[in-house]
Amino acid sequence: MEQSTEQAMQRGGAPRHIEINLERLNQLGMVTHDGGRTAVAEDFRIIKRPLLRNARGDHDVAALRHGNLIVVTSALPGEGKTYCAVNLAMSIAMEMDITVLLVDADVARPSVLKVLGLPAEPGLMDILLREQTELSDVILRTNVATLSILPAGRANKHATELLASRSMSRLLTEIAERYADRIVIFDSPPLLMTTEASVLAAQMGQIVMVVESETTSQHAVKEALRHIEQCPHVSLIYNKSKAFPGGEYYGYYD
Q1: Of 215, 237, 253, 226, nearest to 82 (Cα)?
Q2: pLDDT by residue (tens digit) across 120-146?
Q3: Where is each AAA domain found (predicted)?
Q4: Superfamily of domain 5-253, CATH level 4
């Protein structure tokens, strides 16, 4: 039986360790450590490289401020942003000297734990609502040693205000600066459906917007980009393209 968020909050103690069914994810065509060199895995190797350069810097370019905070969003629901966020997190977790925190910030319709086949847990909203709840109380360790998860937690009608609050700013600073080797991937709400998405995006170092091939209109893409025009580092993933036989293709545009 699945435990409620309230029951999980009452457990307290050390960070929980959860088991992700990696074989199930592999069967769904998603990126896993042992999944081999699949087309999707190779696509996300390409997608992650410029994001990592921006986050960590290289010989010629300094790292972006909070460049290790990367939000994955879309214009509309159903474009595949959660699958892209999970795949991106899994791919980055394969790096030799990086740890990844995957945050479900789609607080109205959380999907990360569902995609991973896991029950609901306390998380982000619980930290912002309860002063006695710390980040370490709700982070979930996983059987992928370099990957942890921060669930969305309980829904709240004041989610926009909470995400725009000083508490959220302090939390983001803690997440960004506490561990130098950490990349944080946020699964965000769609930009054209909620105000939470643009509020969250404004606080990120990098934005990845997922666009569904042959479905999302040009008007919707332009309108979504207008919502994040104040953010200088935006990249696009062209998702679910059938341009190549044998499955989905993830194109990357910076």
Answers
A1: 237
A2: 999 999 999 876 788 888 999 999 999
A3: 70-230
A4: P-loop containing nucleotide triphosphate hydrolases (3.40.50.300)
